User: Fold these one by one.
Assistant:
Number 1:
Amino acid sequence: QKEVEQDPGPLSVPEGAIVSLNCTYSNSAFQYFMWYRQYSRKGPELLMYTYSSGNKEDGRFTAQVDKSSKYISLFIRDSQPSDSATYLCAMMSNSGYALNFGKGTSLLVTP
Amino acid sequence: GAGVSQSPSNKVTEKGKDVELRCDPISGHTALYWYRQRLGQGLEFLIYFQGNSAPDKSGLPSDRFSAERTGESVSTLTIQRTQQEDSAVYLCASSPIGGSYEQYFGPGTRLTVT
């Protein structure tokens, strides 16, 4: 079993919809939880990060971490066609430096 | 400012040949990472450089893989005697300090072994 599990999709939604992306993990040492966005033929770019449990909001994006369930989520409100990309969850422990990635979820927002 | 750059962007090679991939990190970033992204898979950690410390090579999949970094600048990833299973996108990232969750990725080198 991989340490980080993520449904690869693809996920297709109409413009304006609320999108929910999520990952589960097995390593209780993970303390940093990140969401990276990757456009086709580009490198991943950091979208949001959360330390330990809780919620974090940035504009249309909300990240949630539930350490008791080992479950993290990213919500995108009022989704736009420009949000079409692959979303990768990534995690790291306090003592680590290598990011542990999920497979990524491919999202398509249709006009 | 300039981001992480990688070259070549694409590389097609025959099985058994050696290849060298290059990464130029963001200026001033002390930490550098290599990851591999195979089709349908998540990014896999390969190797980590931090300043003048010995690199962490624990993610390298076989002894055909090696990497070097000159001080806090350019890094090269070398794959010897390439195999078809080496086909992947090789991504380099850098961060201002070691052990940072905030890693800045380059566009990657797409390697195809025929």
Number 2:
Amino acid sequence: EVQLQQSGAELVKPGASVKLSCKTSGYTFSNYYMSWLKQMPGQNIEWIGNIYGGNGGTGYNQKFKGKATLTVDKSSSTAYMDLSSLTSEDSAVYFCATGSLFAYWGQGTLVTVSS
Amino acid sequence: DVVMTQTPVSLSVSLGGQVSISCRSSQSLVHNNGNTYLSWYLQKPGQSPQLLIYKVSNRFSGISDRFSGSGSGTDFTLKISRVEPDDLGVYYCGQGTQYPLTFGSGTKLEIK
């Protein structure tokens, strides 16, 4: 069974950075891309970018370049996303999801940016 | 970016009824390889989205045949027949043909 377990909710101050994780099991991590997506409360879903589990190759939505940095740790089948220079506009639920079909999703991580 | 436009924004249906949701893209979703990467997702209240349909009309593993997808080019439709209580939530279409990947703004399905 494919499972994506995301890290817990974060409360961070404006200007700070945060690193989210997505630990996977049940499939060969290095053979697939992992995407990250953003959903603000009551809003649409935005694709942030993706990273290939095999070699860490990345692709980003231009909107999130400089905001998000994607990495992987193949040894633990875990994907990470760093979000930097956080503002209130970054307060959202962030999901990881497999491939470009988004066949499997993590449960989401709520990031709240507040002083 | 490819803009995905869904209609209606919301709809209400009786149990056992049938509904259709429309999704239009601002550009053709036919990829250079001949495939059309249009998917449908359901986000139930308080949950992550789940994949229902991929490449226009292919049901994902475990998805009921009450869900069906159709369309081509820029116009696509999701049909839900014999609506059940568990079908409520927000339905999104999404395209995987052109980067950045984009989604429609969602259609909220309510049960009468």
Number 3:
Amino acid sequence: GENVEQHPSTLSVQEGDSAVIKCTYSDSASNYFPWYKQELGKRPQLIIDIRSNVGEKKDQRIAVTLNKTAKHFSLHITETQPEDSAVYFCAASPANTGFQKLVFGTGTRLLVSP
Amino acid sequence: DSGVTQTPKHLITATGQRVTLRCSPRSGDLSVYWYQQSLDQGLQFLIHYYNGEERAKGNILERFSAQQFPDLHSELNLSSLELGDSALYFCASSPGPKRDGELFFGEGSRLTVL
């Protein structure tokens, strides 16, 4: 089955710096790659997603890139702010499941210091 | 507020006991997913229901079972509880039957097994 690895597990940056979180997946047929943000004690929420026919997608300060050949995708956060501090999860959706069956990475704890 | 309601929010019980977690999906959503999040762990997919039918199973133990009722709410039953079952259990819903799309998570049910 699909396996998603996520790095780093912890990332500390200064406010205003950029942060990059990387994920690799094993199933080359996976075709949907969302990123979820989970603030402390809160529920995960979708922040951005990308599909396999697109190489990059941006939404204000966040962007996701996808390299299907290498089977990896990354989350980029620019001009980080303290409110970006949270745990970020990448996920991959294996194809041919008929319905969504996301496999999540183990998460990256991002700490943005003022 | 995601529109997904989970009860109870917190539950403390003893080993060997049985508990039921309840989830009401967003209005109109036909798909319900259950995830387990242990301390400092990612989101482990347990099971997916669509319009009352089981559609996919993940790493769900035989001691655990779930169902989705005609009114689309879902229940996750955990029996013969062990200390290791202590975790945050999330329910998520999506409109379905799209192959991919945003999952809307509830606030979770935190289970503590003593």
Number 4:
Amino acid sequence: NAGVTQTPKFQVLKTGQSMTLQCAQDMNHNSMYWYRQDPGMGLRLIYYSASEGTTDKGEVPNGYNVSRLNKREFSLRLESAAPSQTSVYFCASRGTVDYNEQFFGPGTRLTVL
Amino acid sequence: QQQVKQSPQSLIVQKGGISIINCAYENTAFDYFPWYQQFPGKGPALLIAIRPDVSEKKEGRFTISFNKSAKQFSLHIMDSQPGDSATYFCAAHVRYTGNQFYFGTGTSLTVIP
């Protein structure tokens, strides 16, 4: 039972390049989330998916797109990376019962030059 | 606009002392308040959580105090240990916008032996 896994762990991009961050969970959770973590800013929600086939914007969605490929997988895509997107990205999943905790992945550290 | 305000930004405590981290919010629609612990290079992990109909919750050395009228809640770590050195985030959950969580900006705790 791996929980929430993320790939890659580290990535360096040049401005304008694109990439997809992958996330998968094996806990049969319906809800999945993408956050970014920046110093002094806490975690901010980029996008979330309440169930397979649905996605919604969070606090900071600009410059990102997401795909809920199936119940297990939720990917985050940067179409044209900008230095402002340098951050640590966390994926999380959550069960359907109210107040269930979120389980976080280990994160992806992204640097955009 | 930060939905959950957290203080202090950093905290240094002697081993055996009490660590106190405070959070405040304005949105009365918040219905669940978790605290997360994060070690360097890892994703956040749920530490303890409280619902607004309870004024205090204790789990081992960790206690949440909740003041609904003041819209404030705090984490108390009793008998702080060097292994407690980590970053702590408070958060608040709201159901009506798709079960989103809003995070505080984090507190870096250092416990000196």
